[in-house]
Amino acid sequence: MQALVLEQSEGKIVATVKPLTDDQLPAGEVVVDIDWSSLNYKDALAITGKSKIIRNFPMVPGIDFAGKVYYSEDPRFHSGQEVLLTGWGVGENHWGGLAERARVKADWLVPMPVGLDGRKAMIIGTAGLTAMLCVMALEEGGITPDCGEIVVTGASGGVGSTAVALLSTLGYQVVAVSGRESTHGYLRQLGATEILPRSAFNSDVRPLEKQRWAGAIDTVGAGVLASVLAQMNYSGVVAACGLAGGLTLPTTVMPFILRNVRLQGVDSVSTPTPCRIEAWKRLIKVLPETFYQQVPHEVPLSEVAESAMKLLNNDITGRTLVKIR
């Protein structure tokens, strides 16, 4: 089997596609032949060494994958069955999906939902699952399409672009925030009614600004999230799932106390399986067929390391699909 392997050399991360044997795979009840994976922001950080995502080496990155069961010790899965995996620390502390084969715990796998195949599942991937969980958080907070505008930050990325498509299809009026003018046409195709520059959202704002947003999906954090919170309508809901802009949150309690704003954190890594299955069902039902044509940028395993740097440099829009076989 071929795999993208991360190793440390003189304090730096070295990413190499090299052969491995099944005996080298980590422990688990199910072995999967991987057909498709994807390149996520967290993968790019790990591969380039821009952040200490990986602490144990060697490591095969890739936080999600789709493929067919090769061997299973668990009765829930059988040889030839199509499955997918997202999260659970795979690609971080357990060898992940940027390889031709993986051995994982059975509890981490989800049977391929009816209506999906491996390629479509990875076009959606971890990013799409996270976006759906964010939309569900807005719904659970009582935010409906008639409540007003929804703002999506980091809208040209994997989570943001899927969130724009989901919200638009569900009837919401979506305002996308993007730092690149070149992405505007793409975001309008996905359903954004207005596009704002990222420069319009920074921490140099008062704790409360003029109310505008009924809901928000934030993938950036830091000053951008603080600016969004200051502009939320009374009883607005913010689903926060990213920290590309930094770990700090320069705000006050005023939006939460004076405007009854809810800040809901969204994590897709450890989401319980029943919630995952429900989110995948919603994704299949809501995403239009055109989404699968508009979004993917496809690369082979041999080009993943190069694509990781492009992703961090904002040279890639939307999802990056990795064809393993």
For the structure shown, list the relevant keywords.
325 residues, Rossmann fold, 6-stranded parallel beta sheet, 15 strands, 29% helix
What does the model show?
There is one protein chain. The chain is an alpha/beta fold and 325 residues long. The protein has 2 domains: 2-112 and 295-323, Quinone Oxidoreductase, Chain A, domain 1; 126-265, NAD(P)-binding Rossmann-like Domain (Rossmann fold), CATH 3.40.50.720. It has helices spanning 41-48, 118-140, 158-169, 184-190, 222-230, 254-258, 273-286, 289-294, 304-312, and strands spanning 2-9, 12-19, 30-39, 64-72, 82-86, 101-104, 110-111, 150-152, 174-178, 194-197, 213-218, 232-240, 262-265, 297-300, 320-323. The strands form 3 sheets. Strands 3, 4, 5, 6, 7, 14 and 15 form a 7-stranded mixed beta sheet that branches. It has a 6-stranded parallel beta sheet with strand order 10-9-8-11-12-13, with helices on both faces. Strand 14, helix 9 (304-312) and strand 15 (320-323) form a beta-alpha-beta unit. The longest helix is centred in the middle third of the chain and has 23 residues, at 118-140.
